[in-house]
Amino acid sequence: RIDKVIARRVWDSRGNPTVEVEVQTTGGRVGRAIAPAGASRGTREAIDMRDGGKALGGLDVGQAVANVAERIAPALSGLDATDQKAADDAILALDPSALKDRLGGNATVAASLAVAHAGAAAKGEPLWQHLADLSGATPSIPLPEIQIFGGGAHAGRRVDIQDFMVMVPGASTFGEALEITSEVYRAAGSLMERKGRLAGVADEGGWWPVFDHNEEALETLVKAIELAGETPGDRVVISLDIAASEFGKDGRYRLALEDRELGRDEMIRLLGDWLDAYPIASIEDPLAEDDPDGMRAFTAAYGDRVQIIGDDYLVTNSALVRDAATDRACNAVLIKVNQVGTLSEALDCLTTASDRGFGTIVSARSGETEDVSISHMAVGFGARQLKVGSFTRSERMAKWNECLRIGDAIGQDRFVAGAPLADTAWA
Ligand code: PGA
Ligand code: ZN
């Protein structure tokens, strides 16, 4: 049973305050989790409750921490830590709002995940096993989606596109996917250095994007894959997060780097040209969250050959996933627990998505910590992919390394290689 729930302020990878929750059981077990924080946030996602004011850029979390101590803790006290649904229902009863604006999504997500950790500890199981018990899924090791260049809101908008990533569906194990990605990352760094454009890394650890136009990033990525000894489009493919809500509104898309504004159809054509020219297997938020017509048109045109992920467009919301499946606005969903607020709601969204043939990608936020819950989630929920940012900085590497450990426990042959290319497209 849950005995004590403690909240404290800790710090994330951007040096910003965030919420940590610790759940103690009567049996002396402890579960702990930390809320992540996004920078390119969807308008329909759960809010991050921040104190405002002058101190710490207005980002302090005193109220969210108090909400855990004063409201969530009494509601969870005495509940069975292994009963995640009951715990999340207790949190939801306190704040049934879609945006979790009474408690703060940062308070609810840390509390919900801490209960899961405590539940696993109470059962004497690793978290991934406990989550597999909850989801009913066969545990599997996800295909990693790893950033090589950061951009958009994660790199001072140096380029418009947010994530230039690679996936290695041709790898035979998770470990091999990491090894090949590491070579690509290293190669991309030397290419930047040769051009005199090495300028450190962006928020998620990808190389800082010193490029004259968005295509130059894609061309450099292709060259990096080649320099790493791979044939682009063979074992290694490109994945993009356009994060179009950051520069698109009312069907107009403003590409600041190229100083031009595109209409919806031109934007779709531009992305289509990229799909023709580069080995891109997956594309996230190609159009803005307020542009369902654009998402539907894009999916009608390209959904049979590429994975189209809704992130800001779906905000880990089951109802939005149901609608998107019905009107074919994309064919995969990004799962971020803090977009919706509790683990049970995130699992419900993931199940809703996979029941409809959608690809499922568990994802970190740009503001992260040493918390590795999402690695366990991806495995225990049987998600196809895991997106964590780049291949540097320990708040990222911790998640990749945790998957290696879990792989040793469940068998490296449980790696879901190739899945995003094989099954997610609309046939
Ligand atoms: P965020 O970005 O965590 O800054 O919102 C991640 C993403 O868009 O996938
Ligand atoms: Zn995104």
From TrEMBL:
Keywords on record: Cytoplasm, Glycolysis, Lyase, Magnesium, Metal-binding, Pyruvate, Secreted
- Catalytic residues, per the record, are E204 (proton donor), K336 (proton acceptor)
Signal sequence, renumbered to the chain: none
Annotated Enolase N-terminal domain residues: 2-131
For this record, an example GO cellular component is: phosphopyruvate hydratase complex
- Supply one GO BP term: glycolytic process
Q: Where in the cell is it found?
A: Cytoplasm; Secreted; Cell surface
Query: Does Metal-binding appear among the keywords?
Result: yes
Task: Give the metabolic or biological pathway.
Answer: Carbohydrate degradation; glycolysis; pyruvate from D-glyceraldehyde 3-phosphate: step 4/5
Requisite cofactors:
Mg(2+)
Where does the chain bind (2R)-2-phosphoglycerate? Answer: Q162, K336, R365, S366, K387
Principal location listed in the UniProt entry:
cytoplasm
Q: How is the cofactor bound?
A: Binds a second Mg(2+) ion via substrate during catalysis. Mg(2+) is required for catalysis and for stabilizing the dimer.
This enzyme catalyses:
(2R)-2-phosphoglycerate = phosphoenolpyruvate + H2O
Q: Which residues bind Mg(2+)?
A: D241, E284, D311
Q: Top EC class per UniProt? A: lyase
Ranges for domain Enolase C-terminal TIM barrel come to: 138-424
Top-level taxon of the source organism: Bacteria
Mention one GO molecular function.
magnesium ion binding
Q: Which SMART domains match?
A: Enolase_C, Enolase_N
Q: Which SUPFAM superfamilies match?
A: Enolase C-terminal domain-like, Enolase N-terminal domain-like
So what does this one do? Catalyzes the reversible conversion of 2-phosphoglycerate (2-PG) into phosphoenolpyruvate (PEP). It is essential for the degradation of carbohydrates via glycolysis.
The entry sums up its family as follows:
Belongs to the enolase family.
What's this protein's name? Enolase
